[in-house]
Sequence to fold (449 residues):
Amino acid sequence: MSAVRTEPTSPPRSGPPGLPRLLAGLDPSGAAMTLADHERAHGPLPRIGPRELIEAVERSGLRGRGGADFPTARKLRAVAGARRRGRVLVVNGSETEPASAKDRLLLSRLPHLVLDGAVLAAGAVGAHEVIVKVGESATTSVRALESAISVRHDDAVTIQLAEGPEGYVMGEESAVVHFLGGGAPVPTLVPPRPFERGYRGKPTLIQNPETLAQVALVARYGDRWYRELGTAADPGSALVTIAGAVAAPGVYELAFGTPMADLLAAAGGSTEPLQALLVGGYFGTWVDSSRAFRLRLAREDLRSVGCSLGSGVLIALGESSCGLHESARVIDYLASQSAGQCGPCVFGLRAIADAFGAIADGVAHDREYDRVLRWTSEVRGRGACHHPDGAARFVESALSVFGYQIDDHRRARCYAPGAGLPLASGAATAAAAARRTARGSAAARRAAR
Ligand SMILES: Cc1cc2nc3c(=O)[nH]c(=O)nc-3n(C[C@H](O)[C@H](O)[C@H](O)COP(=O)(O)O)c2cc1C
Ligand code: SF4
Fold:
């Protein structure tokens, strides 16, 4: 077994200088990297003790890439120190944010990097079981993972693959754990949080695939190497899905601290003058372009305009599109994705979506603007999960950035072409999936090894 040992610790290899890091050696043909190619690019799984790994991750400053931006070392410590036995690691590959493509890219093209991170993190917290959870439409990821798992004979953990229904809130960690335990894919009341009592009541470390891929690099090359890129407060690199009015939409690896203009340049530049950027996906924030271009990909910059990188999505909205109508579509989608469990989320988001739709169509009463703002403040913090909070943030930023267009919409019909913000129209709603699960038709779940 070569996977995780307490001693000895192998000295860090020298890592790739500059970028790419995570995406180093990515096969342009679209094929998944084989284990042999992966080991040629990064070397074999390093031997590193649990304490050494957690300390290296702590010094690296790595934070979770699934949206909550939580310090990874703190989570590792919490699960490692849990009193209950039978710890589990879950790779949250749900990627329910419709515009995001980074997790599918990692799982389908670089599965061994993610699995290395999972095996190393499992060793660090004393877990012997790893479950990789993906959405049921992610067939390329499933194939790549099945094949990767089948050739990993030396891991000191069992690795299973689970496919689940897809809907916006089904990637939330308590929903993932509940579904894997045989329940409906809907968020549950916390506490207890998964790290205390998660999958089948066991302490569960749940991490995003990109976070684990970064752990695999820190374990190999060390925290000093990790900090060679980025800023002191935001070290390292990040995968960003850049979409909208850019010439080459896609997933790009960029160093923290990169100016926003350079991010767009990486995606081929904008295809028309931009009116705004949506930073952080549909739980994110619209920022008008004049302010956005003064920002860097850094937490302090993003916080100064009330946003965060979230799940690493950046959408450019061209001047020819209508921010109010695009936002109305997204809000309607978010309302449709409520898991149907908490009154303020179910009724509040629907009321907000309907009122916002009327505002965008220019048929809303004068009072509607204030009512929407009042309702967003009323739904915040009133759900079992953060769905209403994320949706409220999106709505407030949409009104703040595009609110000046409301009067024009009242005076004349808006003929702006749709910008095509992705909405995962095939996504199940959590409420429907819950009913399906209750009828005993739980989505396929299988052990890959
Ligand atoms: C509504 C909702 C949906 C979420 N969807 C995802 C998802 O698809 N993938 C993901 O990794 N995290 C998602 N998260 C965040 C997870 O709850 C959790 O914080 C994350 O998986 C932890 O991994 P990290 O610390 O590596 O980021 C979601 C959170 C919320 C509130
Ligand atoms: S807040 Fe909404 S999405 Fe979250 S659990 Fe409650 S009803 Fe479901």
Observations:
- Residues 64-68, 70, 92, 94-96, 168-169, 171-173, 206-208, 211, 385-387 surround flavin mononucleotide (ligand 1) (CB under 6 Å).
- Residues 1-8, 438-449 have pLDDT under 50 and may be disordered.
- The two ends are 16 Å apart (CA to CA).
